[in-house]
Specification:
The chain is α+β, with helices and mostly antiparallel strands and 925 residues long. It is 18% helix and 31% strand. It contains 19 helices and 47 strands. Strands 31-32-34-33-35-36-37-38 form an eight-stranded mixed β-sheet, sandwiched between helices. Helix 7 crosses helix 8. The N and C termini lie far apart (82 Å).
Amino acid sequence: MREQGKNMRLRPLCVLAFLATFLASTTFFCAAQEGKPAAKPSPWKPEDIIYGETLGMFRISPDGQWVAWIKNFGDKEKDSVVSNLCLANLATRQEIQLTRGTDNVSGISWSPDGEWIAFLSSKARPDAKPDTAKTQIWLINPHGGEPYPITELVRAPHQVDWIDKETVIFSAEEDPSAYEQAEKKRKDDSEVVNDAEHEPPVRLFRMNIKDKKITRLTTNTDWIRNWIISKDGKYVAANHDKSLHYTFDQKVPPIIVLHNLVDGTEKQIFTEMRGRRYGFEWMPDSTGFYAWAPYSTNPKFLTATIELLYFYDLASGKTVQVPLDWENGIGSDLAATTDGFILGLAAGHRFETARYTRSKNGDTWTWKRASLEGETATNIMSFEAPADGKSIVYQYSTASLMPQLYAARLDGNKLTSPAQLTRLNDELMKSHTIAKSEVIRWKGSNGDEVEGILRYPIHYDSGEKYPVITAIHGGPSGADKDFWENNWAYPLQLLTQRGAFVLQVNYHGSNNYGLKWVESICCGKYYDLETPDINAGVDYLIAKGLVDPDKVATMGWSNGSILSTSLLVTYPDRYKVASVGAGDVEWISDWGNVLFGDSFDSYYFGKSPLEDPALYVQKSPFFKMDKVKAPVLIFHGTADNNVPPAQSWSYFRALQYYGKVPVKFVIFPGEPHGPRKLTHQMRKVEEEMAWFDKYFFKTTGTENEALKTGSPLEEALRSRNIARSGGAYGNAFTSKGKSVLVPEVVKRGDLGVGRFEVTRAQFAAFDKKYSVEPGTENYPANGITFDQANAYVEWLSKLTGQTWRLAAEKEAANWYDKKDGENTLDYWAGYAPNPDDAKRLREKVKELGRSAPLLKPVGSFQGQGEEQQELVFDLGGNVAEWAVAPDGKGKGLGGSADCPADARSACTAAPEYIGFRVVRGAPKR
């Protein structure tokens, strides 16, 4: 996504499965690269993506026997992702769930003796004071017992760790000042931007877990962000922000402070280095720590960078750069060991996990690199390792294999005996087909080699040509890796399931490929290299005979949206459809309206809009929207401060202004740069799939928004079948040796009123030409004219010697007042449709392809009457019923299955939904 700082949107490839036990032999198979996937019964659905399980942070216990980890999953009732704390035994693979419910867990940390796990949780407590923060510090004994909170902080803690087995350390904003309390009392929710004078400082605190006493450790007036405590609990290395607008302009950088918790002193370190630090890791013996930090050749901005590693020696107070012997820099995690460290290195489409062994020659430290070897060493996403470095716990994935947590032995740099610890999304893996994938390469801008991930159509057959969709990553200094990705922003399996290739491109400016590549689009080259890179990837697939050149589409979020739009205006005849979210189209207004406007725009364009407004106009696709030929679907959250929501409004209005292509704009109220509510994520995916289905795959007709999912009509349309019912209603009457079913009547005053509408079987006894489909004998006779109904009652009167007739309008008027709960259009819709929806639904009913498909057997719904023997059925629905008007003409009364129950409705039953009910007895005079 378009963001500043370390982009950890990890993506994936090959398929690798494991059947193993810890420290035992392991069997692998790789099916992603060859052959067609075996057919599986369940198709991918949006809810599989939105409500699926994911792995959060994980931490190894001090004794190296357990790993605590966080399981994230979607909760429909809460409409958000929630998390639980889990425990896994590294030897037996036993899994224990430590917390339950629909709250959030984060920031897990083991006590030094392994007896407690501290974590942050939003779980509500019944005894909470009114002004306490929702998130507090909780403890749980991993060996048994319930979790419980140990703090009642007014401000939510940011991070928690341990000083010793009885003392936790945490960071949090300082308690409200007198100014803040006064503003709250005034109920004034106004905000002053970058109000450093009143922004509460973030400080360090300690707390004894037994007596709950909290002590302030620092009195800084700035804002501590990330920090780490030494293993002996004596020192903290911390990032201190010195400016509230550093992200915007990078003028006043953060500083690194070493806090001595024993004597309370502190000193600034890394003073010779510029910019922010990403993170720290103390040596197991607390003699120093590693710090990884960004590096760029640009003298002003650290916007597009690689990460380099440094070591701070506590005794000497000196900092040295660690020679990684790796041009691309750091890619993922670092775990310090007694003999050095384990590090994930940036390696293009993956991370190269390596072991560095430390040695000292005089006063000089040296480190020697050896890449990890083993069948699972190539696709490690993230990892943890104990101090002895003899084992490793890691998250493993490919583009065709969902991530799981594994444990393995480390024998030097040999990774052996991997064992799977988690079974996330196990049922999805078993029941769904996953697209095969591969890493591909082609020539892009400047003749440079570009790398990408290609996902195949699920039912791919060699020799056939398929559509392709470019799914473009954000950043721009993000990267698509050979890791699993299938989320609300990029629902890739839904696209491959529809028969398309999905191409993800690590264009110029992507990270994980080294400094030259990530910096290549700075200083005015933004758009110039990336856009051709992506299009060249499509050319490559067409030349290989894989892709139909007339079926190319694009999608992306944030910078992926920005580049998708660039494709639309640069190659308008190629890209047929687009789905974009939270992307810029007009750069002058972007500069001052986002968190990192100057540090992003001035870096990539080389100047600010104040210095060269013409450049910003020239770079803005907004002024080229007349070139767009593709239908465009746009998404944006109204609380986005990474890309102004006004950008999507401008995009939408420009396309609307020209009126050349279909355009749709979906807004997510209150959402930041990406939607957090699961309903909004579902809406995004469903809208996107419907857009591609309609304009790209062309597999759907016109959408009917009146059709409710799960309604009886929707079910009938899906199955193209409405249940039939055999048998027949009525009382047997014998005439000339033949038995005839006569309508059953219910006494209403002096009259006998037909309990049911005249059925098809009953009417067919009179009219031998009236056709009755087998199984529908009990359905009401329909498509009956007034004359036919009169002819039937005359015939029935002669047959029985009794007086049968149609009801007079006046005597029957009050019979039809109640329509609720009857067979009307309300029943089939699943709601009460207004006139517009009713019209849409009647059009949809035509797809069932036969006359009056909404009719049900008579008596299918609750009848009207006080007693069982008095019940009369279908007065309010099924077919409208003929009655005799005062002028002697026919008039249809009552509800019908093709009309709403609304008494205000002017709906008239269609001829095929008109039948009749009989009355026995002479009319009143």
